[in-house]
Amino acid sequence: MQLDKSVKQCRPERATLVFPATHPDGLKYLEAARERDENVVAATSESGAVLPGGSGELIVLPYVHEAAFPERFIGLIREHNITRVYVPVAAVYSWLNRFIAEQNLAVRLAGESPIKREMGRFNQLIGKVSSYRRFIDECAGGSSDLGDLEIASVLRMADHIYGESNEHKIAAMMAIFSSVPKGDVIEIGALVGKSAAVLAFLARRYDVGNVLAVDPWQSSSATQYDSPPAIQVDAVGEWDYEILPQDFIVNMLPVGLGCFNYLRQDSKQGFESFRRDRAVASKVFGKVDYQGKIAIIHIDGNHDYANVKQDCELWLPLMVPNGWLILDDYQWAHGDGVLRVGDGLLEQCAQDIERAFVCGKALFVKFGAKGVSGPSSFTLE
């Protein structure tokens, strides 16, 4: 009995085999597994392959159709005490699923096949569209002409870009474009482009006008002094402010070419450039012309009261009649600057406002046929 106990103690910890680990989904699984301290073994059938950055041992197995594979596979399972196998390739998954059942091996495949996973992912996405369909129609004032697959496309695109705009806010953005007039589409504060990509897609879909994002991508501009220290310093200090605009460009290229550009300036500088030139040129997006009249503006820059107030005072007088304002983080746990400006705007410009509602923490305001007459003379405390 003592011998058996000693053997048990030497048995390695249970492990998950990732095979083929060199597949993009295999690499993602390895990264996530290591973050959660899951014991993993990486294997591939690609001779000479290595893991990125030399991040661990990569075992080479024969291809599943080769005669040597069964023995090598079973030996690997026993040697490393493998109880689960994550397989990102559909053909390999099907082969192993059958082989494990035939050999009655004490190992299971993790999750469904890649094909079923993709079908499930799509069905889940369409389920989200169904849950938002009525909401989008109501926010649109009765009915939105966006098709279900268009809504699904926007939700999936946004889901793949880092940012804090939630699905309810994005759904409301889709809805209001049904009643957005012609003009420029402006975003103040872009980060890496989650909401800017949505605006660019919708502006082109509805032929509203060209889109401009304004963001300095600087820590000094991102620091929000009205907020708690953790928001002021900790989160701001984590960003690499030279990588940020590059990440932004990568996310915007698929939807922005020909109808989009950006200014790496703060809101005030960007306003002066926009008002003076009505055109923006960049190496990546080329030269884009603007009308100088704003159809929809998304204000999501620095949330300190003085900054939000300045954004509204500068940009809102350029709004066209029936234009829309999206004031982000009107409901925000880390400060009340946006709330105070939003409430002041609702009170001072009440005669100019046709509709207003809050969704996804953002305040949505549609101005009436006379446009905006009050924001340039804000006298809020």
Summarize the structure.
The chain is α/β, with parallel strands linked by helices.
Describe the structure.
With 381 residues, the protein is an alpha/beta fold. The protein has 2 domains: 98 residues, Rossmann fold, CATH 3.40.50; 201 residues, Vaccinia Virus protein VP39 (Rossmann fold, 3-Layer(aba) Sandwich). It contains 14 helices and 14 strands. A 7-stranded mixed β-sheet has the order 8-7-6-11-12-14-13, sandwiched between helices. The chain has a 5-stranded parallel β-sheet with strand order 3-2-1-4-5, with helices on both faces. Strand 4, helix 4 and strand 5 form a beta-alpha-beta unit. Helix 5 packs across helix 6, helix 6 runs antiparallel to helix 8 and helix 8 packs parallel to helix 11.
Features:
Rossmann fold; 14 strands; 44% helix; 2 domains; 18% strand; 381 residues; alpha/beta; 5-stranded parallel sheet; 7-stranded mixed sheet
Tally the helices: what do you get?
A: 14
Strand/helix succession: HEHEEHEHEHHHEHEHHHEHEEEHEHEE
What's the overall average pLDDT, rounded? 90
CATH homologous superfamily identity of the largest domain: Vaccinia Virus protein VP39
Overall 3D shape: elongated
Q: Radius of gyration over alpha carbons?
A: 27 Å
